[in-house]
Amino acid sequence: QVAKILRHLLQVLCLALLLTSQALVSTAGPPGVCSSSLKMRVVTVPILEDNYAYLVIDEATKKAACIDPAEPKVVLEAAKKENVELTHILTTHAHWDHAGGNEEMKRLVPNLEVVGGKGDRAQAVMREVGDGDTVLVGSLEVKVLYTPCHTAGHVCYYLEPKDGPRCVFTGDTMFVAGCGNFNAGTPQQMFHALVEKIGSLPPDTLVYCGHEYTEKNLMYAQTAEPNNQAIKDKLAWVRQQRAQGNPTVPSTVSTEWQINPFLRCREQTLLEYTGKSDPVECLAVIRARKSAWRP
């Protein structure tokens, strides 16, 4: 009688396990395909010579924002392909290759709200934003990081959806293994933007930057830290990606801590490379040397 009861319990357990596994398979979807339950999706749109624009899509509402759509027709074609309604332009900064398409985009899509950083005077901006401000794109909350230095009112845009990867759009403040020129600011401002703001985001945050500068950035990074194996490995991967015509974005915050000499300005190897003991001074020297460097 005891054996019979045990067999029955075993059958019930096996059935429960089978039903559970079937449920997991039905919701997981095939390998490599994003689940349709994810609320946010990013589409990378190569434009101009080496710029990237992006679509940030709220899957729940099919509303989207475009980031730095400097080549409007290309961006609009991408939005049409994704079958989304554009509601916002999120401008990182005022330079023509980022904000130069705003007026035409507004003419072609009249209901767009054009957002940009306070004091940056970017083309066609209707709403200026500063640190901690938010923009709602469908049901997605986009947080503003105020990062002046490359321009007077440069901003980055950060999202941390509950059911998808965190991501930050860094414009020309941070590149993969690089950073922008200090056109309108100081080394201290760039240190604050790179190290204390972007660098403090969760390590798994995806980093989407404004240009495809990665290979040359890594080539320079190798001259600054010739024994950094992470830089060597990343450079090999980047060359493979570019040979296949693929972008090298996104990176991650954790990867940048390993390969980006500007973010790594507190590391002993880079303090020795620059002959400085202060990280901000180290950052300034790295920027000057990178500007003068030729591959």
Quickly describe the structure.
With 295 residues, this protein is an alpha/beta fold. Helix content is 39%, strand content 22%. The longest helix has 27 residues.
Q: What is the element layout, followed by pairings?
A:
Blueprint: H1 2-28, E1 40-47, E2 51-58, E3 63-67, H2 72-82, E4 85-90, H3 96-99, H4 102-108, E5 113-117, E6 127-129, E7 134-137, E8 140-146, E9 155-159, E10 167-171, E11 174-175, E12 178-179, H5 187-197, E13 206-209, H6 214-224, H7 229-243, E14 251-252, H8 253-259, H9 268-274, H10 279-292
Parallel strand pairs: 3-4, 4-5, 5-6, 10-13
Antiparallel strand pairs: 1-2, 2-3, 7-8, 8-9, 9-10, 11-12, 13-14
Provide a descriptive summary of the structure in words.
With 295 residues, this protein is α/β, with parallel strands linked by helices. The chain is built from 10 helices and 14 strands. It has helices at residues 2-28, 72-82, 96-99, 102-108, 187-197, 214-224, 229-243, 253-259, 268-274, 279-292, and strands at 40-47, 51-58, 63-67, 85-90, 113-117, 127-129, 134-137, 140-146, 155-159, 167-171, 174-175, 178-179, 206-209, 251-252. It has a 6-stranded mixed beta sheet with strand order 1-2-3-4-5-6, covered by helices on one side. Strands 7-8-9-10-13-14 form a 6-stranded mixed beta sheet. Strand 1 and strand 2 form a beta hairpin. The longest helix is centred in the N-terminal third of the chain and has 27 residues, at 2-28. The model is unreliable at 2-36 (pLDDT under 50).
